[in-house]
Design brief:
Number of strands: 9
Largest sheet: 9 strands, mixed
Distance between the termini: 29 Å
Shape: globular
């Protein structure tokens, strides 16, 4: 995708320059000694100026729309749900893993996949207890690795566990394109994509190249995390991806001995943000050692402790997601 994206961006920039700036610059060069004020066209009144600006904006919008990459569904995948966060360290990957498992547990007839789009810090292989390299089909497509009934693909399957990914943007974009297009997902009802933190190239690339049924924003109640979560939600809105709601993670810590509850990261921060954005809270997940330990051991809490409060919280989030998703294609 990297080469194509650069080409359309370059074409759009050239067209925009030719639409206005290029002609104006050429005109000034052809009239020595002409100042910007003297060269300006005579004013025809505010109405005429406003209509001219509007026509220019419409022209630019048409030019850019011709150059944008067209969204193409992932073959065999009915609906894509992205799990994102503005900030790292808020438990996004843990949430994505348990949401995928909860979606599968909700209806055994549904097929669920999990794509790790975090190129620099893939964590799905460890959390899903998967190792090895994907096999190739006769069509040279990668076969996802599977555990707990979930088909998984990650950059972590293609590199050594401790090897750093020291790549520039174009190489990262190419890797994302391969993870999206060169994987034999079979037939999936839902593909959950664990996005990297932030609002950069990967998020834009995924959002602009495939149709996304909805995005889930994960944040702790901490003010610093909420600032970035706000940016993440606004980014998806700008690229016309529906935001299904927010997940308040690590909402409260309960002492395992005395059962006293402590709001380590603050209280109701995500709820306040949801009101500001006009979004719903999909669920609250407590700060519990079992959630961390089970993911670190490759046995996520939804699978290993299905009757626990933490697992029930993820099941509730999965149900809220399903309620808000559009009707899938037949």
């Amino acid at each position: 995708m990297g080469g194509a994206a650069w080409l359309w961006a370059l074409r759009a920039a050239r067209l925009l320059l030719g639409a206005g700036g290029g002609r104006a610059l050429a005109g000034r060069r052809g009239r020595p000694g002409c100042t910007p004020a003297a060269c300006a066209p005579p004013s025809a009144g505010s109405a005429s100026s406003g209509s001219g600006d509007e026509a220019l904006r419409d022209r630019r919008a048409r030019i850019l729309s011709r150059g944008l990459p067209k969204q193409k569904p992932i073959e065999g995948v009915k609906q894509v749900v992205v799990v994102a966060s503005g900030k790292g360290g808020v438990g996004k990957s843990t949430t994505a893993v348990n949401i995928a498992l909860a979606l599968a547990a909700n209806d055994s007839a549904k097929e669920v996949g999990l794509l790790d789009a975090d190129i620099y810090g893939p964590s799905i292989p460890k959390m899903m207890n998967l190792k090895g390299n994907p096999e190739l089909t006769p069509k040279n497509l990668m076969r996802p690795l599977k555990n707990y009934g979930i088909a998984c693909m990650s950059m972590g399957f293609l590199i050594e566990e401790t090897a750093p990914v020291v790549w520039r943007g174009l190489m990262v974009m190419s890797a994302v394109e391969k993870l999206l297009r060169q994987v034999d997902w079979g037939q999936l009802d839902y593909l959950v994509i664990d996005m990297p933190p932030g609002t950069g190239d990967v998020q834009l690339s995924v959002s602009q190249n495939i149709p996304i049924a909805g995005a889930v924003i994960v944040s702790t109640p901490q003010d610093v995390a909420l600032l970035d979560a706000h940016k993440g939600a606004e980014m998806f809105r700008k690229v016309h991806v529906p935001v299904l709601g927010l997940v308040q993670n690590m909402s409260v810590f309960q002492c395992p001995k005395c059962k006293h509850e402590t709001h380590i990261f603050g209280t109701d921060g995500v709820k306040d943000l949801a009101k500001t954005l006009g979004l719903d809270i999909l669920g609250d997940v407590p700060l519990h050692i079992n959630i961390r330990e089970t993911c670190d051991s490759g046995q996520p809490v939804v699978i290993s402790q299905p009757q626990s409060d933490a697992a029930k919280a993820y099941h509730k989030i999965a149900m809220e997601i399903l309620r808000r998703l559009p009707v899938p294609p037949a």
